[in-house]
């Protein structure tokens, strides 16, 4: 199941829903062009999970990742890819990229949000936010 906005389909999943610590967390997002024409996607921020992911505990308490660092300079050309009709591109995000500290045992949820509202030279524009996807931190017994 995915979320489609302006002919761009986003599918988001947590690869291992039960982990023993934050360093085992991995999520994948897949973008697919559902239109009959080429889509130009701005990928400048797609390698910065601290900007794209939102994490919360099962009770809704946010889990903050820490500062995301400096965004790359956008000249309107760098970081763009063209997706042909039906073509896809995927990105993976790990716990070591996102979490600044360890996670307490318990149930969590994560969602992906991508926004590009400033079109430059034909970039895809819109806001895509997925549903919350659950995962659990359950330390292994020694």
Written account of the structure:
By secondary structure, the protein is mainly beta. It has two helices and twelve strands. The strands form three sheets. Strands 3, 6, 7, 10, 11 and 12 form a six-stranded mixed sheet that branches. The chain has a four-stranded antiparallel sheet with strand order 1-2-4-9. Strand 1 and strand 2 (8-14) form a beta hairpin. The model has no long low-confidence stretch (mean pLDDT 92).
Architecture blueprint of SSEs:
Layout: E1 3-5, E2 8-14, E3 18-19, E4 26-33, E5 39-42, H1 49-52, E6 53-57, E7 62-63, E8 80-83, E9 88-94, H2 95-98, E10 106-116, E11 126-129, E12 133-137
Parallel strand pairs: 3-12
Antiparallel strand pairs: 1-2, 2-4, 4-9, 5-8, 6-7, 6-10, 10-11, 10-12
How many helices?
A: 2
Rg (CA only): 16 Å
- Helix content, binned percent: under 10%
- Count the E strands: 12
Taking pLDDT < 50 over at least 5 consecutive residues as the criterion, the unreliable ranges are none
Largest sheet: 6 strands, mixed
Q: Structural class of the secondary elements?
A: mainly beta
Dominant shape? globular
First-last Cα distance:
37 Å
Mean residue pLDDT: 92
Q: Secondary-structure element sequence?
A: EEEEEHEEEEHEEE
Q: Strand content of the residues, in percent?
A: 35-45%
Features of the shown structure:
142 residues; mainly beta; six-stranded mixed beta sheet; four-stranded antiparallel beta sheet; 12 strands; 6% helix; 44% strand
Can you summarize this structure?
The chain is mainly β and about 140 residues long. The protein has helices at about 50, 95-100, and strands at about 5, 10-15, 20, 25-35, 40, 55, 60-65, 80-85, 90-95, 105-115, 125-130, 135.
